[in-house]
Every structure is written in structure tokens, then in C-alpha cells.
Amino acid sequence: YQESRMGLAHLEATFETLVDAFVFLDKNKD
Length: 30
What we know:
Layout: H1 2-29
């Protein structure tokens, strides 16, 4: 269980980074 939880946390962090980058690029367009 521990390993899969770590993987899930890593996935969440990666997803958050992607969302942050997307929002940043979107704001930059204006």
C-alpha cells in the first residue's frame, strides 16, 4: 500500500504542476 500511495502523491503533484503551468500560460496570453 505504501508504494502505491507514494505513486499517487507523485501523480497528484505532477498534475498540480501541469495545472499551474497551464493557468500561467493562459494568464500570459492576455
